[in-house]
Amino acid sequence: MNVIDTIFTLFHEKGSGAYFGEAVTETEHALQCAYLAKQSNATSDVIAAALLHDIGHLLHGLPEDIAERGIDGRHEVGGAAWLAQYFSPAVVDPVRLHVAAKRYLCAIEPGYHETLSEASKRSLQLQGGPMNAIEVRNFEEEPHFRAAVAVRRWDDAAKVAGLCVPGVESYRACLEEVLTRERV
Ligand code: FE
Q1: CATH class of 3-183
Q2: Tens digits of per-residue pLDDT, 72-102?
């Protein structure tokens, strides 16, 4: 099975669980996030990142599951490590940084914290709370930090119960375009 089929199978077979404390499933959340990226005329890399930003939640049990190997349940780290086998940093980095981007926005944008859902406010505390000044500076040195912030904003908005958006298959061409390495 190629990696795109593996990803689609993950969404079909493992994405029907509720997205942490929200009114949508994991797959609905991913599809809404990718749809918002597309509506914003994001590049294919960034649309792919939006679709795949929470793939770390779905990876458990895969044969090449890096997410479960000694990484403390941080889904963005496990997800990014798995994706890095197949995709470039332009796709992988926004995934790796999307939690940091929440901590970043809480630090630099007045009022952002108030826009977060209750579940997202709760997880912020576990994730380290708002960034300090040094963390903000380091974050802004990441080459793909702006894409990570964009994915974060779509992530925050992609929680609308019952919203009808295109399905996973509609992203096949986009993923094929940004795929850098096939599965061996
Ligand atoms: Fe998310």
Answers
A1: mainly alpha
A2: 568 899 999 999 999 999 999 999 999 999 9
Ligand 1 centroid to residue 155 C-alpha, Å: 5
Ligand 1 mean position, distance from CA 63 (Å) = 24
Would you state the structure tokens that stand for residue 145, as one six-digit string? 């930090």
Give me ligand 1 centre to Cα 26, in Å. 8
- Cα(24) to centroid(ligand 1), Å: 11
- How far lies 92's CA from each of 18, 24, 57, 59, 114, in Å? 24, 24, 15, 15, 28
Upper half-sphere CA count for residue 143 (Cβ side, 13 Å): 6
Structure pTM? 0.92
> For the segment 23-78, what is each residue's pLDDT rounded down to a tens digit?
899 999 999 999 999 999 999 999 999 999 999 989 876 665 554 454 456 889 99
Please tell me the distance between residue 30's alpha carbon and the centre of ligand 1 in angstroms. 7
